[in-house]
Amino acid sequence: MDRSSFPTAAGILLGLGLGGFFDGIVLHQILQWHHMATSAGYPPDSVENLQLNTLLDGLFHTATYLFLLGGLVLLWRAARKPHALWPARAFLGTVLMGFGLFNLCEGVVNHQILGIHHVNETVPRSQWIWWDMAFLIWGAAMLFGGWTLWRKR
């Protein structure tokens, strides 16, 4: 089967959305390691700062929801056309690629370039870089693993 028959963009968008939801739900809400602007001068030490961070987290979730919705629309449109059976590796590979891309983009832009938050702000500041680097390595591993699966199908 040629690669063009599988809706690669759909899987990548689904992965971007799932990656964002994992970050927002697990790291922001459940573990409460950070919020969107906790390192940008808005630590959750007052009601006003927590309200702002909650709003920004909600906007972040809206963006991840739109990624997921876009992926579903593309997948639905492609699935309604006649096609050969898609290999599970193609789907899993593209979702992993999207999840990894999310981690790499979010980690580089928000954690390193903008510095608006870091992965785990509950540890001493001197340890933040290690958590940030682990997040980037995890993202790169998912991107590479997904690409490998997608390419081998």
TrEMBL record:
One Pfam family it belongs to: DUF2243
> Per the UniProt record, which residue ranges are transmembrane?
12-31, 59-78, 90-109, 129-150
- Write the record's keywords in alphabetical order, separated by commas: Membrane, Transmembrane, Transmembrane helix
Nucleotide-binding listed as a keyword: no
Record-linked InterPro entries: DUF2243_membrane
List where this protein forms a coiled coil.
none
- UniProt entry tagged with the keyword Membrane: yes
Q: State the signal peptide span.
A: none
Task: Please report the name of this protein according to its UniProt entry.
Answer: Membrane protein
Q: Identify the species of origin.
A: Cereibacter johrii
